[in-house]
Amino acid sequence: MAAHGFAFFDTAIGRCAIAWGERGIARVQLPEAREAATRARLLRQLPGAREEPPPREVRRAALAIVALLGGEPRDLSDVPLDMDSLPAFQRRVYEAARCIPPGATLSYGELAERLGAPGAARAVGQALGRNPFAIVVPCHRVLSAGGKVGGFSANGGVVTKLRLLTIEAGGRQRPRSAGADGALRFDPVAALRHLRRSDAELARVVDAVGPFRMELKRTPSLFAALAEAIVYQQLSGRAAATIYARVCALFPRPHEGPTPEKILRVSDARLRAAGLSRAKLLALRDLARKARAGEIPTLAEARDMDDEAIAARLTQVRGIGRWTVEMLLMFRLGRPDVLPADDYGIRKGFALAFRRRSLPARAELEERGALWKPYRTVASWYLWRVLELEQGG
């Protein structure tokens, strides 16, 4: 067996691994729950592979994967792959799948037809289930009939597949609240200059934490963002992501997110079977009804509304409170002047940053926050980071 090298590299979805041999890339391994598990899975497929610095061509491939997973449009069809040991049909499936561009999808049946093998959808699915070149051979872009998400063999299953599709859909069409490069609408340099000048103690926090790296989370619609927020309430990130993926998977083209029509059409039983509590089901139904009635602004409409007007509209929805709106304003719409004064992380970060023995009252936090206007979003981000540093994160 030819000798293989492998290396780890960080991406937006976690720490991936890439292995190579003399004839090209031999495997791309998506993240497991821990790096040790990722290494073990790769070594089960490539026994004897050695961890070592990658050669230039492999580094270039890894950087292209990082860019693609970061939402940039990248073509990986020229990355050299070592397919010599694979069956001929499997190679043909992979080459055909590599022709599907980011942001596009095909069904297993459509891919079979492209191969000149109509009726071989199941065989195509089986070949993709054994895909050793994740992302480079984009098996996540192949869906079941009717646009249903289908299966996915990588760690996280359907949740990971939906995340990959959502990243690529977001790269194809940026939210209007972001610039062409996905950057925030406000200037972080100007924001930091203002915060340093207005609050010397906060300036020390900025120095301790380092550069401002807040990024917007892409969304196909304000409705989808709110639906996701409802699902995530009072759950761990992993559990919420699983349930949200199951909800999305109830509909065709799940990576585009739910719509009011989809939510109102599906039965209570199917939504409950996806993992939604009764309260969240009722909240989603109310959100869908209000959105269909035009009571929920679109992303384009929200762009021209001030923060308080958005909050007044959205908090009329069952299950949507002030905190949920504040998170949307900050991380979906990129608003510069949001201070979630009731957020525990903000209050705890404030106490640590300003050496308070107890958590501040809302009035104290808002009084200090007046110094940070009109960039309280940036100050809030730094207070969260202070808490993370204290907790070893």
Layout of SSEs?
Blueprint: E1 5-11, E2 14-21, E3 24-29, H1 35-45, E4 50-51, H2 56-69, H3 88-97, E5 106-107, H4 108-114, H5 121-129, E6 142-143, H6 158-172, H7 188-198, H8 200-209, H9 222-232, H10 237-248, H11 260-265, H12 268-273, H13 278-292, H14 299-303, H15 307-314, H16 322-331, H17 344-353, H18 362-369, H19 376-390
Parallel strand pairs: 1-4, 5-6
Antiparallel strand pairs: 1-2, 2-3
Descriptive report:
The chain folds into four domains: 5-69, Double Stranded RNA Binding Domain; 88-169, Orthogonal Bundle (Arc Repressor Mutant, subunit A); 188-214 and 339-390, Endonuclease Iii, domain 2 (Orthogonal Bundle); 222-331, Endonuclease III, domain 1 (Orthogonal Bundle). Helix content is 49%, strand content 7%. The protein has helices spanning 35-45, 56-69, 88-97, 108-114, 121-129, 158-172, 188-198, 200-209, 222-232, 237-248, 260-265, 268-273, 278-292, 299-303, 307-314, 322-331, 344-353, 362-369, 376-390; strands spanning 5-11, 14-21, 24-29, 50-51, 106-107, 142-143. The strands form two sheets. Strands 3-2-1-4 form a four-stranded mixed sheet. Strands 5-6 form a two-stranded parallel sheet. A hairpin with a 2-residue loop joins strand 1 and strand 2 (14-21). The longest helix is centred in the middle third of the chain and has 15 residues, at 158-172. The protein is globular.
In short:
This protein is of the alpha/beta class. 49% of the residues lie in helices and 7% in strands.
